[in-house]
Structure formats: structure tokens, C-alpha cells
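Quick review question:
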């Protein structure tokens, strides 16, 4: 079976060239399975609801115009026609045609005793048992139209006269009364307990006793409550019409009554089994044509009282002859026959005319004779029922939406919903493999495999949605909204692919921006100092690192989804380019003040900042793994991997690229024109600028004989640098400006806290899908009109003792049912498997009690006894076998007549509970399907045998079973979360009472995460905050600096959360990831400034100016690059990407820039950390240390060893430096590197 999954994967992924090999593997590994017999009956593969289709195919009908009431004749007929169309949808595969009837979920036929007609009736019922559809038109006779069977069964006139309750001609659910047929046949043949089943299921007359949507419908049966007598109306019409002049008379179209041809399909099969060869010969010679099913009357059967010698032998021929003697009909007089013929010919035309001219009916009909249209609201109040009225109840809220009531009755509605249940692949495989009707003659049954059944199901589902998407009524305004599991999967697969056009455009924009910011012109072309080539190379490097990261993530088995393919490439690009800008900005300074070891100086100056921000970003996304959402874990994992690859590439490869560009500049070659020489705009400076912050970097600038002017860029007022020096820094030194910034920040924090308090939980499923897609339209209609969800209460575990915990289980079920969210039909919960088992056993107890009183059983062994030629009923014979069975024992002594299977407290006898379960599962298997119990392990097979008295095998103790419930009023996430909390509390209570259980269903699958979302978010933020604080404290060796950074990050997170709440962005796992990322990304805008301030010298204002001149421009460009990285998200097909990523990331960048470049500098001027170095002279500039050659010469001159040399050096008063109470690791490491280098001043 493991090969089947490979087949499906290969086919769905389009790798068809592997199919032949895999099919050969399957043929070797999977042999043709045996037929599914009663002895090894397999439990049903029940449809599983996953919220997005699954085993349920759904279609919603919404108004075709504003204000339309769908509780009308036109809307209901439109829905009925749609159901008929869906039933006729076909797909062609494996040399056969497949329809919904082949794959739908339908219960198996009830069991028959092994009599002469058992096989025939099984074949007939297998053909006619309908699919289980949940639809609002089941309230009416019209609900039978789509049930089929298609094509209709035509049993021929002989069978119709043999069984008078069968309609002549075509047999469908539109004219079939199954209960009448079973009762009539049951008088002739022993059909077993099927009659008992029909009574318990409430099948009765099926659809024939339900009102017609339109009483003028031609096929509306006479048994319908609002049947319209067309023949009587035709008589009145003719009288009225003939009284008019010839010019005013209405002309009706005459219908030609077609004669049926002799059918030779299932009718011939039945006749072949029932009648002998001579009988069939006479039938062929004397066969008569029958009229159309909608217009014919029952014909007189031929020689019903004469016994044919070739009839099969029956146990009691007297009963058989008596049954046949009651099937004759009286002759009709000629006048009545003429009227009937006239009605057949013109009745249909009259009904059509009446439908087209409803205002003229009063001209020939009295008020009492007018067609009786049902009150659609009254009929549909409380919901509808399927063909089994007692076991198939469709709640009102499941099938009708947008309801308005008056006095408790429906008066209008805006939507109708129908649900089609589809079987699992194995059930479809078993059904087709063992089909006795040979409905697919072109199929190679020997080679038919379960994976083929799965392909048939998915292909039909795709065809179902495709046809409804293109439905003619959906052209102007979408009226029909279908959904299948394949539609969701196909759409997500399509839109989860990388949109390479958008990605390329985004990267081109980033290249243009990077080149623009790094370009310097000299004359007609780029100057020597221009870094456009490096900028382009850096963007390409980040691109390649992202590709490598995605490949590594794929290698690790991390799955792609819509969030990863739509967001990760742009987010990785934006965050990776930040560090590139920082390296390029400092590189532009270093090459103008340093003439040796430039790359080393650059990495010493910038490497700390790059490492600090990148590590914190990686930790932030890793912390997102705390959220227990697989898709978001994939997103966080992939983003963290890509950021790690960005860090590696930028720290190891990009410096090498800078080194190559440095050679170009030293040779005086122009940027992007290496064959053209230029002139440097400014020679290398011999000064030590104050904004070269690292002490070891200063050691590289050896050999300065005099202090020269610091390197200054040419920055006009309209550039970022010009704005910084001319406007921004002076303003930031102003106390009033500082006060305004602090007050504004405090106000923003207050509003942020308020916004977070008012934020609500939730994520609209429609937002997860692209807006213009039909599945999104379906979900919007579902969220608007239907608040209904199914659920299961699951009993699972080795410690469950169901036979002795029946009352506890019933108490548990009633406790769940007491919830206001549970739907009850007439105050009662939906039946479940144990209640169905109990009802079945009670009916058997009654039958057994009656036959025991009549003396029809041997009390010692339970064998049946004939009394006056009558045997016990099938129900009592099964009951006797069950009563005598307990565990592995079979003993009737002292049990028959004394032990009941269900006591007066409705408790099933625990001693034989699992024996009874086996009997119910096999005899009443259709009820088991309907109960959706899904037993594990499955009870063993068993079949009643009158001749052999032996124990009914006991089923193994159930480890898994489930009870269905319907829930309503789940209109939004808060309501659903409240329901989950309530149901979970009940489940936990009974789990503590030794009844292991849990709830299951779509609501729990999608919304249970919200129970712990706030806690998980808090824990994730706490983890990332602690990690960020630890990393910054270690790398900076300054806990106070780390504390200030954390304060700014917390402020940014609060402001972002408040913005999301005020803008209506709900709290959900996606927005939670954004908040978690805000902690890491917030460090991007603060750590650079903090580090520059920490390593600057001079007064507070001097340090402020130095750090801003050093970091403002790269942080600003990094923010713009991050924005450019996420701006392409606005073109995403997914609304949730735009809403939850583009909007929030854009606001995060804006808040990060404001807090990092405005709020943090102000706070640093008030409570900032002390500098790493404090010159004893109070200067803001340190002189460079003497060259190592000079130091060595001085040391050699002193002699006396190292200790003496050091003592003598201390006596020299050269530029004494007072170190702060703490040593920076960067300073200590720099000093070691400085001592190892030898430089010669020039």
C-alpha cells in the first residue's frame, strides 16, 4: 500500500513520466484484494470534514438580485435544477464514464435472509439506494428528482404486475414507495428483518408524501399533500374554453403517448431469477407495450391466480398463491377510459399553460380548486429530512441562511446550502470492484486498484467545481458557490508557487535604489569613489544567498506554503540589504582615512553591528516556532535559515568583493567603466576622525605626524546627509524638540495599549484565499449566512469500559447537549450509535417476547418452532441468538424469556454487549453507516443461520468510537472560542471520571489555537526578549545599553500591536508572528545607533552628533531597503499577505525608524551609558598610538626585561588614557591585534 501514496504524489505533481514504472511496482506489491464478503466486512470509510471540503462537497446559492427571498418557488426550483445537473456531471477515465452516484457516500443495503429472492432484492436495492445529500429541497417531493437512479430502472410490465406497488415503467425515487414494495414482497418471500429497519428508519413513503414545490409540476404524485388534479381541471378548462369564440379559444398542444420498448436489463435479470424458461417464453410472445411512467395507469395482470409449473419452489405455496390472487384490477368503462386518454394527451399542455398564465386560473377554477402552493417558510421551519425521516434530519441552520422569522416561523431567507457526501477511495474501490450489476462493462475490474478510485474522486471533484464556476447563472452575478477539497488544494497550490515576475521586479527596484544611493558622478560618468557596482553585486549576493537558503530549507524537509512563497523572498531581501548598506557606508569612510588593512578596519568598525542585528533577527524568527501552527513554523524556520545565509554571505563573501573594488579605486578606475580613468575627489586623509569609534581601528591609522581635518563628504542640503547635518542634529539638540518627541512617544504607547486591549481574536478564512477566486467567494458566503459546524465527541482509549459505563456516556452526551451551541431537533439530540443499537435491541426484545408467548422457540437451544405452520419472525430469531450469546458462550437455558437485552433503565445488558454490537453491525449495517460511529476495531462478520445454533461472536472492546453533534451560532472567533472552552471543560471533567474523550471537528481544528494564542505569544516575546538582551549584553558587554535597546523594542512592539488593534487587524497566529518579528527587527534600528553612541567620545551632544553622523544614513537606507523589500507584497494574490504582512511590516519600519533615530537618541542624551573610553584630557579625539617599531626601539633602549621596560614606559607621559571601569571585549581584542602589527609612518 505504500506505493499508492507515491502514485498519487507523482500524478498530482505532474511527473507522469514515472507512472509506468510505479504502476509496475504496484502490480508486484499489491495483489487484487478479495471481494468484500460478510465474513470480513470492513467498516465504512466515513467522510472527514476538514473545513475546506474534504469528504463534503458543498454548494451555496445566494440571491440573484438584492432583496431576493430564496424561500420562493423560483429559487427552490433553481436549486432543484442545480442538484439534478450536479448528479449528471460526468468524467471519463479508465475507459468508463463516472458520475456522482459512483463516488457518493451511500449506506449499504440492508441484510436479507438467504431465500430465493434475497440476491435479487439485494441487487435491486444496491441499484436504487440513493446518495446521502443534505439539501433544503428534501423538504419537498422535488428532492427526489436528483436521487435517481440514473438511468432509471425499468422493470417491465411483468414485474410491475407481479408487484403491484411498483410503479409501471421507469422506477425512480420520484414515484417509488419503498415501504409498500417491501411489505408486498414480504408477504410473498422471507426478506428477513428489513421491514423492521424501514420502520425504525422512518422511510415510509420516502418522498411521495411531501408537498411539491410547484403543484403544477407534471410529475407531482397523487399522494402529495398539494397534488393538483389536472384531469378535473382539464374538464373545467374545456367547458370554459369551448364557451369562448373561436378567436379567443386557447389551443393546447397534444402530447403523443410513446410506447415503451421491451427492456432487457435489470428486468430481464429479475425475471430470469424468478420465472422459469417456459414462463419467459410466453412472456416474450405475449408482451405488451406500456405507457409512459407519468401518464399510464396500472394494467390488468395476466392470469394472476394461476400457478405456473416453472415458478420456483417456495416454502409455503399456499401463501404465494393467495398473494397472487389479490393483484387483479376491475375493468374500466369506455367513457372513463376516454377521459383518461384525453387527460394523458392534453394534461401536460394544460399545466404548462397554467404556469405561464397564473392570473387567468380564476376564470375557470374556484378558489377551492386552485393549485395549492405550499407556505415555503412553514414547510422548512425546523429543517428538512432525508429519505429516512427518523435518522436523516437536516438542521435548519445547515441548509438555510440569512433567516428572518415571524412568530417562530420562517418568512424569508437569503441563502440555501446543499452538501454532497463523498466516500473514501477504498469504499469506492470496494463498491466498484464487487458491483454485481455490471454498470461499468468497459472497466478492467481485475486491474482496478484503490488509487484509481482516488483519481476518479478527485477528477470528479475538479469537474464539479469547474462546471459550477462557469455556470450560466454565474455570468452576471455569482449565485452558485461550490467548494470541494480539490478546489482549495488546487488554488492554494497555484498561488503558493513563487511569482517570479513580482520577485524579479522587486529585486530590480532594490538594485535601482542601491545603485542610486551609492552613485557618485564625475563629469559624464560615474566617479572613482562611486560604489554602484558593489551595490549591484551586493543585491545579487543577497539574492543568491536567499536561493541557497531556500534550497537548504527544502533539503531539511520544510514545506512551502502561501506565506513562505509570498513573503519570505521579499522579507529576506529587505533585511539582508540593511547590512549591505552599513558595510558600504563605512567602506566609503574607511578608504578616505586609511591606506592599509582597509577591509580589516571595515569589519572591525561594522562587523559588530552586522552580527548584532542579524543574530537578533534570526533569534526572533526562531522564537516564532513556539506557536503550534505548522504553516507558521515553516515560515519562521525558512526566514531564519535565509537570514543566517545572508549573514554568512555578507560577512565572508561581500568583504572579498569590497576588496576587489578597493583595488579599482586605488588604480583610479571609474565605477562600471574600468577602461576609463578618473581622479579622486579627495586624497586620503591623514587624520583620525572622531566617528571612527573602534580603538583598534585607530591603531591601524599609524604614523600621523599632525592632526589634519577629518574626512567630510560632499553632501548638499537636499541629500540625506545634508538634512542630517543642517536640520536634524541641531533640532535634536533642542530641549523643546526632545520634550515633544518624548510626549509623542508616551501618547503613542498609551494608544498602543488601548489598541491591544480592544483587539479581537480571529482570522477570516476568506482572507486566507485570493479575493477574486471562487473559493474565497464561497467562504465569504459561508461566513455571512451559515454559522453551523458539525462536531464529534470521540471516545478513545484502552481504559474505556463501554458496557459498564453506558449511563456515564449518556450523562456525558447530555451534558454536551446542554450547551447553548448544540442544535436539538424538537428538544432532542441527534441519534448516535448506542441509541440506535438500543432502539434496535428493544424492537428485537418485543418481537422475541411475542413469539416466546406463542411458543415458537425451543427454550433450551433457541431453535425456532413452527406453530400452526407459522415460524417466528426474523427479528425474534435474531433476538434469540443474541440473548443466548454472552462473551464466547452460547447457552439458552434460563435466559430466553428471563433476560432482556435492554432493561427498564435503557441500559444494554453488559454481559452480552459486544455480542449485540456484532449483530447490530452486520444485520443493521445501514444504521451503522448513518450513525457515523467509525468503530475501531471493527466488529467481526456474522450472518444468521437457522440451521446452526452457535454463539454470535463478540466484538473486541472498542478503542475508538464517536458521537455526532451539530453546533450553531458560531458566528465569529470569540463565539467559537467560548464554545471550545465550554466543550473542553466538559470533556476534561469526564476524562477525570475515567471516560477518556475529546472533541473533534472543524471548529476545533481551526480555532482551538486561539485558546493559548495569547499565552504562546507572550512566551515567544518573552523568549526573544531574553535572547536579545543576553546577546546584546554579551557582545556589547554593557547590560545598561541592552536594557535601553529592550525598552525601545518594547515601545515599538506595543505601538505596532496598538496599530493593529485600531486598524481592525485581528489577533491571530499570523499577526502574532509579526509581533514576534517586531522584537528582532526593532533591534535593526536601535543596535547600530546604540553601539555608535557607546564607542563615541566627548560630551553628550558630541557623542550624539558623532553616532548620528556615523549611523543615521545607513539606518535610513536600511529602512528604505526593508520597505522596498516588502512593498512588492502589495501585489500578492492573497489578502492576508497584504493585510497581515505588508501593512504591518510597513508600519513596523516606520515605527522602527522613528524610535531608533528619534526616540533612542533623545533617551541616550538623558540616561545613556558612559563611553567605553574617556580621554584624561577631555578631548573628543584620541591621538594614534606610536608605531610598533618606535615602541620596540624604546623598549630595547630601556633593557632590563619586560617588567623593567613596562615600568619605564609608565613614566613617560604620552597621551595617558583613563580606561573606564569595564573593558570592552572589542577594545581588548583590538589592542592585541594592534600589538601584532608593524606600521611605518610616512
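Suggested answer, residue by residue:
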Amino acid at each position: 500500500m505504500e506505493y499508492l501514496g507515491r502514485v498519487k504524489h507523482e500524478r498530482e505533481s505532474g511527473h507522469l513520466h514515472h507512472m509506468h514504472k510505479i504502476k509496475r511496482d504496484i502490480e508486484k506489491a499489491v495483489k487484487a484484494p478479495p471481494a468484500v464478503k460478510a465474513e470480513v466486512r470492513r467498516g465504512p470509510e466515513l467522510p472527514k470534514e476538514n473545513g475546506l471540503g474534504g469528504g463534503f462537497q458543498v454548494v451555496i446559492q445566494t440571491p440573484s438580485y438584492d432583496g431576493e427571498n430564496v424561500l420562493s418557488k423560483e429559487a427552490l426550483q433553481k436549486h432543484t435544477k442545480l442538484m439534478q445537473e450536479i448528479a449528471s456531471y460526468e468524467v471519463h477515465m479508465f475507459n468508463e464514464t463516472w458520475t456522482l452516484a459512483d463516488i457518493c457516500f451511500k449506506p449499504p443495503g440492508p441484510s436479507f435472509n438467504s431465500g430465493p429472492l434475497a440476491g435479487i432484492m439485494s441487487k435491486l436495492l444496491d441499484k436504487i439506494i440513493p446518495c446521502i445529500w443534505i439539501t433544503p429541497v428534501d423538504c419537498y417531493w422535488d428532492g427526489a428528482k436528483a436521487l435517481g437512479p440514473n438511468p432509471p430502472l425499468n422493470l417491465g410490465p411483468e414485474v410491475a404486475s407481479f408487484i403491484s406497488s411498483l410503479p409501471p415503467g421507469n422506477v425512480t425515487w420520484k414515484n417509488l414507495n419503498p415501504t409498500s414494495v417491501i411489505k408486498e414482497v414480504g408477504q410473498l418471500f422471507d426478506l428477513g428483518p428489513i421491514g423492521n429497519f424501514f420502520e425504525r428508519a422512518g422511510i415510509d413513503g420516502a418522498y411521495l408524501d411531501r408537498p411539491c414545490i410547484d403543484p403544477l409540476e407534471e410529475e407531482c404524485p397523487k399522494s402529495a399533500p398539494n397534488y393538483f388534479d389536472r384531469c378535473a381541471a382539464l374538464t373545467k378548462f374545456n367547458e370554459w374554453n369551448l364557451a369562448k369564440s373561436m378567436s379567443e379559444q386557447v389551443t393546447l398542444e397534444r402530447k403523443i403517448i410513446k410506447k415503451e420498448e421491451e427492456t432487457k436489463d435489470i428486468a430481464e435479470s429479475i425475471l430470469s431469477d424468478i420465472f422459469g424458461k417456459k414462463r419467459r417464453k410466453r412472456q416474450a410472445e405475449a408482451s405488451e407495450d406500456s405507457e409512459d411512467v407519468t401518464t399510464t395507469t396500472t394494467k390488468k395482470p395476466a392470469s394472476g391466480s394461476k400457478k405456473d409449473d416453472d415458478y420456483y419452489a417456495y416454502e409455503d405455496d399456499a401463501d404465494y398463491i393467495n398473494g397472487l390472487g389479490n393483484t387483479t384490477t376491475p375493468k374500466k368503462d369506455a367513457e372513463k377510459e376516454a377521459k383518461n386518454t384525453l387527460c394523458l394527451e392534453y394534461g401536460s399542455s394544460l399545466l404548462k399553460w397554467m404556469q405561464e398564465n397564473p392570473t387567468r386560473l380564476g376564470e375557470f377554477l374556484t378558489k377551492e380548486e386552485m393549485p395549492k402552493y405550499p407556505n415555503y417558510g412553514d414547510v422548512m421551519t425546523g429543517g428538512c429530512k432525508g429519505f429516512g425521516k427518523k435518522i436523516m434530519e437536516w438542521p435548519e441552520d445547515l441548509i438555510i441562511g440569512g433567516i428572518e422569522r415571524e412568530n417562530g416561523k420562517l418568512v424569508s431567507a437569503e441563502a440555501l446550502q446543499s452538501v454532497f457526501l463523498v466516500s473514501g477511495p477504498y469504499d469506492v474501490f470496494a463498491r466498484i470492484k464487487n458491483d454485481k450489476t455490471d454498470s461499468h462493462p468497459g472497466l478492467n475490474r481485475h486491474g482496478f486498484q484503490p488509487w484509481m478510485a482516488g483519481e476518479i474522486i478527485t477528477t470528479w471533484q475538479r469537474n464539479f467545481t469547474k462546471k459550477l464556476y462557469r455556470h450560466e447563472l454565474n455570468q452576471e452575478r455569482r449565485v452558485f458557490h461550490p467548494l470541494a477539497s480539490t478546489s482549495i488544494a488546487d488554488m492554494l497550490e497555484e498561488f503558493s508557487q513563487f511569482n517570479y515576475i513580482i520577485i524579479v521586479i522587486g529585486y530590480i527596484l532594490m538594485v535601482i535604489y542601491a545603485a542610486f544611493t551609492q552613485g557618485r558622478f564625475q563629469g559624464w560618468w560615474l566617479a572613482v569613489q562611486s560604489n554602484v557596482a558593489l551595490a549591484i553585486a551586493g543585491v545579487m549576493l543577497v539574492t543568491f544567498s536567499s536561493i541557497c537558503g531556500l534550497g537548504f530549507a527544502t533539503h531539511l524537509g520544510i514545506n512551502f506554503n502561501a506565506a513562505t512563497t509570498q513573503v519570505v523572498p521579499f522579507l529576506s531581501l529587505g533585511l539582508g540589504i540593511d547590512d549591505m548598506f552599513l558595510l558600504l557606508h563605512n567602506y566609503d569612510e574607511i578608504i578616505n582615512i586609511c591606506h592599509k588593512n582597509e577591509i580589516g578596519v571595515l569589519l572591525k568598525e561594522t562587523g559588530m553591528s552586522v552580527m548584532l542585528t542579524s543574530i537578533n533577527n534570526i533569534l526572533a524568527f526562531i522564537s516564532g516556532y513556539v506557536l503550534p501552527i505548522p504553516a507558521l513554523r515553516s515560515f519562521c524556520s525558512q526566514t531564519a535559515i535565509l537570514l543566517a545565509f545572508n549573514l554568512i554571505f555578507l560577512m565572508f563573501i561581500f568583504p572579498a568583493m569590497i576588496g576587489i573594488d578597493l583595488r579599482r579605486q586605488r588604480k583610479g578606475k571609474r565605477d562600471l567603466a574600468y577602461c576609463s580613468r578618473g581622479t579622486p575627489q579627495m586624497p586620503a586623509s591623514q587624520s583620525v576622525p572622531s566617528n571612527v569609534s573602534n580603538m583598534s581601528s585607530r591603531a591601524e591609522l599609524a604614523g600621523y605626524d599632525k592632526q589634519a581635518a577629518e574626512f567630510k563628504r560632499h553632501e548638499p542640503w537636499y541629500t540625506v546627509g545634508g538634512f542630517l547635518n543642517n536640520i536634524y542634529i541641531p533640532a535634536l539638540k533642542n530641549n523643546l524638540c526632545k520634550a515633544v518627541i518624548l510626549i509623542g512617544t508616551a501618547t503613542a504607547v498609551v494608544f498602543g495599549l488601548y489598541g491591544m486591549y480592544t483587539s479581537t481574536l480571529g482570522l477570516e478564512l476568506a482572507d486566507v484565499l485570493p479575493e477574486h477566486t471562487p473559493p474565497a467567494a464561497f467562504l465569504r458566503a459561508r461566513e455571512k449566512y451559515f454559522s453551523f459546524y458539525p462536531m464529534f465527541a470521540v471516545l478513545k482509549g484502552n481504559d474505556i469500559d463501554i458496557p459498564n459505563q453506558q449511563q456515564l456516556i449518556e450523562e456525558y452526551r447530555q451534558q454536551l447537549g446542554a450547551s447553548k451551541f448544540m442544535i436539538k431537533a424538537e428538544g432532542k439530540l441527534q441519534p448516535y450509535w448506542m441509541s440506535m443499537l438500543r432502539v434496535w435491541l428493544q424492537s428485537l426484545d418485543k418481537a422475541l417476547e411475542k413469539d416466546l408467548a406463542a411458543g415458537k422457540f425451543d427454550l433450551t437451544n433457541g431453535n425456532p418452532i413452527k406453530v400452526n405452520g407459522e415460524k417466528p419472525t426474523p427479528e425474534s430469531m435474531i433476538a434469540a441468538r443474541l440473548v443466548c450469546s454472552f462473551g464466547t458462550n452460547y447457552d439458552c437455558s434460563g435466559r430466553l424469556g428471563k433476560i432482556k437485552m435492554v432493561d427498564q433503565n435503557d441500559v444494554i445488558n453488559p454481559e452480552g454487549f459486544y455480542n449485540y454490537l456484532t449483530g447490530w453491525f452486520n444485520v443493521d449495517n445501514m444504521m451503522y453507516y448513518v450513525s457515523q460511529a467509525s468503530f475501531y476495531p471493527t466488529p467481526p462478520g456474522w450472518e444468521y443461520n437457522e440451521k446452526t445454533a452457535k454463539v454470535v461472536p463478540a466484538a473486541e472492546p472498542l478503542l475508538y468510537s464517536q458521537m455526532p453533534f451539530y453546533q450553531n451560532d458560531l458566528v465569529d472567533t470569540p463565539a467559537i472560542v467560548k464554545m471550545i472552552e465550554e466543550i473542553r471543560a466538559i470533556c476534561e471533567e469526564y476524562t477525570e471520571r475515567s471516560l477518556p474523550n475529546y472533541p473533534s471537528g472543524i471548529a476545533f481544528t481551526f480555532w482551538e489555537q486561539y485558546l493559548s494564542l495569547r499565552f504562546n505569544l507572550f512566551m515567544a516575546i518573552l523568549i526573544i526578549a531574553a535572547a536579545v538582551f543576553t546577546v546584546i549584553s554579551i557582545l556589547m558587554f554593557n547590560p545598561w545599553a541592552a536594557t535601553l535597546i529592550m525598552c525601545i523594542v518594547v515601545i515599538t512592539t506595543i505601538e505596532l500591536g496598538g496599530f493593529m488593534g485600531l486598524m481592525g487587524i485581528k489577533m491571530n497566529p499570523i499577526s502574532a508572528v509579526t509581533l514576534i518579528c517586531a522584537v528582532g527587527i526593532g533591534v535593526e534600528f536601535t543596535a547600530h545607533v546604540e553601539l555608535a553612541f557607546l564607542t563615541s567620545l566627548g560630551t553628550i551632544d558630541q557623542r550624539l552628533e558623532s553616532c548620528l553622523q556615523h549611523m543615521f544614513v545607513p539606518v535610513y537606507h536600511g529602512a528604505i531597503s526593508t520597505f522596498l523589500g516588502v512593498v512588492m507584497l502589495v501585489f500578492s494574490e492573497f489578502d492576508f499577505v497584504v493585510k497581515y504582512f505588508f501593512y504591518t511590516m510597513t508600519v513596523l519600519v516606520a515605527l522602527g525608524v522613528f524610535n531608533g533615530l528619534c526616540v533612542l537618541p533623545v533617551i541616550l542624551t538623558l540616561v545613556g551609558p558612559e563611553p567605553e573610553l574617556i580621554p584624561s584630557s577631555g578631548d573628543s579625539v584620541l591621538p594614534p598610538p606610536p608605531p610598533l617599531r618606535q615602541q620596540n626601539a624604546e623598549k630595547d633602549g630601556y633593557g632590563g626585561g619586560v617588567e623593567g621596560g613596562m615600568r619605564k614606559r609608565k613614566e613617560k607621559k604620552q597621551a595617558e588614557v583613563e580606561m573606564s571601569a569595564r573593558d570592552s571585549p572589542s577594545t581588548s581584542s583590538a589592542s592585541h591585534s594592534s600589538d601584532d602589527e608593524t606600521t611605518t609612518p610616512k
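Why it works: Residues 1-54, 274-329, 682-709, 1198-1242 have pLDDT under 50 and may be disordered. The two ends are 80 Å apart (CA to CA).
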